[in-house]
């Protein structure tokens, strides 16, 4: 089961910052928060991940609260091409299995309009 | 250069047939995965191999059989295809050595349609 909660949809004006929230109140101390997005039916695209500290790369910034129970993905200047489903994922060991995997939830559909 | 490549991109076949999907990664990763995305768009983990060893085997009909001939390849063979197998199948890879801090890289999927 997904361990995160995201709003089902959000809208953003082109050129503005898109702030996508995610709750992960049951996160464990060694579990990372990952963000992916999926445009149409393409393969999920990795955006960013973090453990405790805030992270930034060329695509986005990830802000993780001090208690690690929630995070926010920030796209600083959204474009039309950023319209996609965004997934916040806490990577964890798959129940009764030897490996870990990304367990996807329903994600947030971000619509960027001009 | 495509990091994770799947073939074929589209696969249309009839019920009862047997088909295979191939996946190759050139990232030097040691762990590979198969995910299924159904018509409701939910992405579900099916299998994972680490160094050719099966480490994740979710509740999947035994008509589905993954095979990993080496670290760079993970194939999915499906016997006796059923209508409900229609979906998009995604392959992914990651580096196990860094544990849960290693991102998965996905291919662009194989759209399977069973008629």
Provide a descriptive summary of the structure in words.
Chain A has 114 residues and is mainly beta. Chain A contains no helices and 11 strands. In chain A, the strands form 3 sheets. Chain A has a 5-stranded mixed beta sheet, with no helix packed on it. A 4-stranded antiparallel beta sheet of chain A has the order 2-7-6-5, with no helix packed on it. A two-stranded antiparallel sheet of chain A has the order 9-10. The model of chain A has no long low-confidence stretch (mean pLDDT 91). Chain B is mostly beta strands. Chain B has strands at residues 4-7, 10-13, 19-25, 31-37, 43-50, 53-57, 64-70, 73-78, 87-94, 105-106, 110-114. In chain B, the strands form 2 sheets. In chain B, strands 2, 4, 5, 6, 9, 10 and 11 form a 7-stranded mixed beta sheet that branches. Chain B has a 4-stranded antiparallel beta sheet with strand order 1-3-8-7, with no helix packed on it. Chains A and B meet through strand 4, strand 9 and strand 10 of A and strand 4, strand 5, strand 6, strand 9 and strand 10 of B.
Entry keywords:
heterodimer, A: 114 residues, mainly beta, 5-stranded mixed beta sheet, 4-stranded antiparallel beta sheet, 46% strand, globular, B: 115 residues, 7-stranded mixed beta sheet
Explain briefly what this protein structure is.
The complex is a heterodimer of chains A (114) and B (115). Chain A contains no helices and eleven strands.
Present the secondary structure layout.
The complex is a heterodimer of chains A (about 110) and B (about 120).
Chain A: E1 9-13, E2 18-23, E3 33-38, E4 45-50, E5 55-56, E6 61-64, E7 70-75, E8 84-90, E9 92-93, E10 100-101, E11 108-113
Parallel strand pairs in A: 1-11
Antiparallel strand pairs in A: 2-7, 3-4, 3-8, 5-6, 6-7, 8-11, 9-10
Chain B: E1 4-7, E2 10-13, E3 19-25, E4 31-37, E5 43-50, E6 53-57, E7 64-70, E8 73-78, E9 87-94, E10 105-106, E11 110-114
Parallel strand pairs in B: 2-11
Antiparallel strand pairs in B: 1-3, 3-8, 4-5, 4-9, 5-6, 7-8, 9-10, 9-11
């Amino acid at each position: 089961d997904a361990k995160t909660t995201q709003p089902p949809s959000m809208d953003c004006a082109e050129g503005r910052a898109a702030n996508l929230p995610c709750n992960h109140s049951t996160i464990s101390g060694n579990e990372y928060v990952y963000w992916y997005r999926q445009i149409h039916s393409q393969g999920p695209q990795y955006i960013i991940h973090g453990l405790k500290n805030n992270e930034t790369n060329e695509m986005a910034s990830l802000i993780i609260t001090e208690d690690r129970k929630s995070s926010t993905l920030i796209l600083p200047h959204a474009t039309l091409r950023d319209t996609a489903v965004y997934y916040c994922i806490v990577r964890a060991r798959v129940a009764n299995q030897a490996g870990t995997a990304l367990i996807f939830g329903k994600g947030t559909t971000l619509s960027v309009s001009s | 250069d495509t990091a994770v490549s799947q073939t074929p991109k589209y696969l249309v076949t009839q019920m009862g047939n047997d088909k295979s999907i191939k996946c190759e990664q050139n990232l030097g990763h040691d762990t590979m995965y198969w995910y299924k995305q159904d018509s409701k768009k939910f992405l579900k983990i099916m299998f994972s191999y680490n160094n050719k060893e099966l480490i994740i085997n979710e509740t999947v009909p035994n008509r589905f059989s993954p095979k990993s001939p080496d670290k760079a390849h993970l194939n999915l063979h499906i016997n006796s295809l059923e209508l409900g197998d229609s979906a998009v199948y995604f392959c992914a890879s990651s580096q196990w050595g860094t544990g849960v801090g290693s991102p998965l890289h996905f291919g662009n999927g194989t759209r399977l349609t069973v008629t």
